[in-house]
Amino acid sequence: MKAYFWGVLDVYRSYFHIVALVPAGGAGLVSLLITLNIVLGLLPILFIVATSVMIGRVPDAVAGGVGSREWVALVVAFAIAASAFVAQQIVAPLQAALGELLSRRVDGYVFDRLIAAALRSTGIGPLEDQNVLDDLAQAVTTLEQSFWTPGAACSGLIALIGRYTQMLGSAAVVGLVFSWPAAAALVAATMVFRRGQRGGLRVYGRLFFTNIGMWREANYYRATALRAAAAKEIRVFGLGRWLSDHYRQLQTTRLKSVWAERRRIYFAPYLVYTAFGFVVASLTLAALGRTAAAGTISLTQLALGLQAGLATLRLGEHFPEADAQTQFGMLAYDGVEGFERGVAAFHEKTIQLEPRRESRGLPEREIRFEGVDFHYPGSERPVLDHLNLALPAGRCTAIVGLNGAGKTTLVKLLARLYEPTGGRILVDDIDVRSFGVDDWRSQIGVIFQDFNRYELTAAENIGFGAVELIGNRDRIRTAARRAGILTTLERLPRGLDTPLARQYKDGAELSGGQWQRVAIARALFALENGASILVLDEPTAALDVRAEAAFFEKFVDVTRGATAVLISHRFSSVRHADNIVVLDGGRVIEQGSHDELLAANGRYAELFRLQAERFTDDEETEAVNAADLAGDGAVEEEAGTESEAVR
Ligand code: ADP
Fold first, then answer.
1. φ, ψ (nearest 5 deg) of residue 399
2. Atom 16 of ligand 1: nearest residue by CA position
3. Of 114, 374, 564, 637, which residue is the least packed, with the fewest Cβ within 10 Å?
């Protein structure tokens, strides 16, 4: 009984949840749909009443003959029944179409909220938090792939109005013409049937999601088998069979338990509810029959009672337009709400100090990390440990350290994608949290190792460095030229207007090295348009040591005068930087110029020699790649890269 109570409460709680979302469909449309559903619920009752009256009038009409008053009364009843029938045929598709419109509007609103939440996040934190990412994935996949969206839940819920209007209306007819206790018994039997269907769906739904981990894993196998990115390896290693076997095995294991439970969930209750419904229906009909036999009710009343009683009972079924929708449709919305909460929790952590300051033109002297501590949310392990570091304005500082030393984390803090958990970052002695986040970011151009390759035109790929100036073609060309990629881009089918993705008309695919140059042009474009700090976080990591070294050398030239930060895990590729900082375990362990650090004979000297040795050994094989990246004669205009140009 207790479980039953909570079960019912659960259903109503989820209904309230849907009701709160319905207004997103627009007041006018929602009112119209509710009205249509009430009409749709009443029309079958009108049909029943009219046909029953018609049946009742048949004996008199037959006696009166064609053309008599009784005959006309029969024809009128027939006309009303026919009209009710035709009206149903007209209103039902209209209701379905408007329900679809409502569904789309609501889904559009939910998508808008999702996008707004994603963009609201000033930091990157939410998008690196597994729980928040799970919510986001749930929202996106169910919104995009499921039939049962929040919009479908809303129109499904409104469709229930039609069904229940019809159920209660039919029962009321039984009450009026025959007996109210019989009407109540019919409604009870119908609801018990409904409970068997709808309640079973709820239990089944819960069960379906118990093995969600297996489901995700299975989907991963399927997606991997179908993804273009994995196609090469799958073929070379012959993984196709392995992937499809694993997919099938996981799905079968998962579904077998669901299927076994399904029998328990649906079959036994089905028998019990059916028996109950059968007894109530039989008793009611028998009572109706006996009353009719006793002659206490008219033929019309008998027809009404019979038709309305059966119409009530017929509604004790699964409603295909509402049940699954209201059960599963809100999954996506739950995901959106979870994601919003996750984003809000991180958002509150973005600090704005007062008085607010402007960052334009800064730094004039230096950026300083002062005793900065940081650990990622959900982890206690310090990634930056009381870090002290100065980045002089107008100079190029290289930060080197082995993988995991904390270099990228340092850049994320500089760009305020996270806030330090201790200490502060000062720009000419002003705490960076005194600037607005967006204002400060407009001072920084960062190219991360996993920089974006936008499937947009070459010009847009560069222009994104300063999107407000994206229409300035001359400056885009200048940035491209300085990054050494202009000639290559101009030779593409539509020059700078060529989409950088093969799947588009006239689209082109760039090589890895060319993409890096495009990314660098993006950063240079930001620099030319007001940013004063440029950070390169290993965008050259996919290249060999010599190529990276050659590139950095040119880069130091090109960015002379700007506050530049070069990040690398290769000690031997940054020697041209003005200042080299060695990071280890989240702390600065050495710093100075290349010569000073070699003379000091510490960690830098050790790792530099180690890597430089390998670099000399591999020189012959690497020379080809180096020439490719470094370009033939400066970053001004590359030669040598054209050979790998567009396919
Ligand atoms: P580097 O750039 O020097 O290779 P990172 O700054 O990327 O190092 O990472 C420093 C440490 O922080 C590593 O141990 C890494 O595992 C951890 N780390 C990086 N990103 C995250 C994250 N989003 N959540 C938790 N830990 C992270």
1. -115, 115
2. 404
3. 637
Within a domain: 249 = yes
Q: Does residue 546 sit in the same domain as residue 621?
A: yes
Beta strand pairing call for 444-447 and 533-537: parallel
Residue 92 has pLDDT above 80, yes or no: yes
- Determine which residue's CA is closest to atom 19 belonging to ligand 1: 409
The DSSP code sequence of 105-128 is HHHHHHHHHHHHHHHH-SSSGGGG
443-472 per-position pLDDT tens digit: 888 888 888 899 999 999 999 988 888 999
Is 100 contained in some domain? Answer: yes
Q: Which ligand 1 atom sits closest to the C-alpha of 402?
A: 3
Indicate whether 35 belongs to any domain.
Answer: yes
The pLDDT value recorded for residue 635 is 41
Shared-domain flag, residues 228 and 99: yes
Ligand 1 contacts (CB < 6 A) are 128, 376, 379, 383, 401, 403-409
Tell me the CATH number at 172: 1.20.1560.10
CA neighbor of 311 nearest in space, from 84, 48, 50, 53: 48
* Centroid of ligand 1 to alpha carbon of 408 (angstroms): 7
Average pLDDT, the chain: 85
Instruction: Return d(Cα 170, Cα 192) in angstroms, integer.
Output: 17
State whether 328 and 463 are in the same domain.
no
Could you tell me the CATH number of the domain that includes residue 496? 3.40.50.300
Q: Does 292 lie in the same domain as 154? A: yes
| Alpha carbon of 468 to ligand 1 centroid (Å) | 32
Task: Looking at 22-68, list the stretches that DSSP marks H as alpha helix, in order from N- to C-terminal side.
Answer: 27-64
Please confirm whether the linkage preceding 355 is cis (ω < 30° from 0): yes
What's the one-letter identity of residue 363?
Answer: P
Cis amide leading into 363 (omega within 30): yes
pLDDT in tens, 577-626: 889 999 998 999 999 999 999 999 988 888 888 877 765 555 443 433 33
- Residues 485, 486, 490, 495: is their CA dihedral positive or negative? positive
Dist. CA 312–CA 192, nearest whole Å: 12
- 347 within domain boundaries: no
The domain of 635 spans 366-641
- For residue 644, the surrounding DSSP H or E stretch is none
Helix H or strand E segment including 560: none
∠ CA 384-389-395, nearest 5°, is 135
- Please tell me the distance between residue 383's alpha carbon and the centre of ligand 1 in angstroms: 7
How many structural domains does the chain have? 2
Q: Quick check: 202 pLDDT over 90?
A: no
Distance 376 CA to ligand 1 centre (A): 8
Give the pairing of strands 430-431 and 579-584: unpaired
Residues 269-319: tens digit of each pLDDT: 778 888 888 898 889 888 888 888 888 888 888 899 999 999 998 898 889
As a whole number, mean pLDDT of residues 326-343 equals 86
Three-state SS at 601: coil
